[in-house]
Design a protein that fits this description.
Length: 418
């Protein structure tokens, strides 16, 4: 294709990965990354894990070293937003009054944390959680320990933040709308496993429960009143009730939307020349034939690569098996697969939950559609995630008895797929 300028709206992992891939693929045109934050594009997983716990320095969080952008002739416009897309003219307007022309445009605008309209939600000590600044500030508040922390939200981020707060020696109470935390994602038995892990480390639960009001004194939070009328003392309140894809820009541009920006398998939107990747993209996945929107880092990483190659006219599709991980206390978990296909299925367990070392497989019509490994030794060959992805990709029926047979090595599952 002819060399044309490429504009990337969004300074996160998807946008930075797209820019890196464009240069790696030999694109010589102008590449401009426009990011609303004042930080270089960075990785989000450490914000609620290693960085929040002080195990990783801030210089490990950026996607690439700061000097990479100048060295590779990528223009990084930080602290500004794209406010309008004019598809017919192929230009974008920025909030500093300038505009940029593009041959191809990537929308990697990400997502924003949901807020709760609660009395007292503007008190000092109450916050949502999403950015590097959020993590930096929360780490400073948690690190001394001894605080009363109320976590509102029992999803993955809520559970990770609760684990970090408790690890620092704070008194943590977690509220969630589910009867069992994470049950909607991994089922009740595994949800109970994670609840038990947290309770063994001092976290208290109120489930199902929600916050009705946040109270304070002298402008600072002092407590949370639940929907049952219980008063929970609080020095820190963190609201982690999910995120909403940032589709306002796409909507104003007239792009097709449905739980994000709809794209084909090459991440092209309904408007030729405009692509979407990362949290904001609801992409057609070749494996399922359905659209999937993922908020995990691997989706942003792989989506950025696919979008870049597609913008260069290559035959690129976003076909990787979804993946994410979590670290909570002494448990490290990895998950590969499609939660929508696994929903409602009873997991097949290899190993023992009580030993904190097991693999859970989910099947649909005897075919593995998702798998989760907990503290499974990565030195074992092949690794759990490699096996899970191979089983999913093969679409070959496997008996539950074979999956659960801990006496047989994981590698013995693979010949069945030949």
């Amino acid at each position: 294709m002819a060399v044309q300028d490429i504009v990337i709206a969004g300074g996160g992992l998807a946008g930075a990965t797209a820019a890196k891939t464009l240069r790696a693929e030999g694109f010589t045109g102008r590449v401009t990354v426009v990011g609303a934050e004042h930080h270089d594009p960075y990785l989000r997983p450490p914000l609620s894990k290693e960085y929040l716990l002080g195990k990783a320095a801030e210089d490990t969080v950026p996607v690439v070293p700061h000097g990479w952008y100048a060295e590779n002739d990528v223009v990084l416009r930080l602290g500004v937003r794209v406010t309008a897309v004019r598809a017919k003219e192929r230009t974008v307007q920025l909030d500093d009054g300038s505009s940029l022309a593009y041959g191809s445009l990537l929308l990697a605008t990400g997502a924003s944390p949901r807020s709760l309209r609660l009395p007292g939600s503007d008190l000092a000590g109450v916050s949502t959680f999403r950015t590097l600044d959020d993590s930096r500030q929360l780490r400073g508040r948690l690190a001394a320990g001894g605080k009363n922390v109320v976590m509102v939200g029992s999803g993955w981020i809520g559970m990770e933040l609760a684990a970090a707060a408790a690890t620092y020696g704070n008194h943590v109470t977690l509220l969630g709308l589910e009867d069992i935390p994470l049950a909607g994602a991994i089922g009740p038995d595994l949800g109970r496993f994670f609840r038990g892990l947290h309770e063994a480390n001092g976290v208290s639960f109120r489930l199902p429960a929600s916050a009705r009001e946040i109270i304070g004194s002298d402008g600072a939070v002092t407590g949370v009143i639940t929907d049952t009328g219980e008063l929970l003392p609080a020095d820190i309140v963190i609201i982690a009730v999910g995120v909403v894809p940032d589709t306002a820009l796409a909507q104003a541009a007239g792009l097709a939307l449905d739980n994000g920006i709809l794209t084909d398998a090459s991440l092209q939107t309904s408007e030729p020349g405009i692509y979407a990747a990362g949290d904001v993209a609801n992409a057609l996945h070749p494996f399922t034939g359905q659209h999937h929107r993922s908020e995990h880092w691997s989706n942003a990483l792989n989506g950025g690569k696919v979008a870049a190659r597609a913008m260069l006219g290559q035959d690129a599709t976003h076909s990787t098996i979804p993946y994410f991980y979590t670290d909570q206390f002494d448990v490290s978990m990895e998950y590969s697969g499609f939660p929508t296909l696994a929903a409602g299925a009873e997991p097949v367990i290899r190993g023992a939950l009580e030993a904190k070392e097991f693999i859970a497989f989910w099947q649909q019509d005897s075919r593995v559609v998702a798998g989760m490994s907990v503290n499974w030794p990565r030195k074992m060959q092949p690794g759990a995630q490699k096996t899970i992805k191979a089983l999913i990709s093969a679409r070959t029926p496997v008996t539950a008895e074979r999956l659960a047979d801990n006496a047989a090595g994981l590698d013995q599952l693979l010949p069945e797929l030949a």
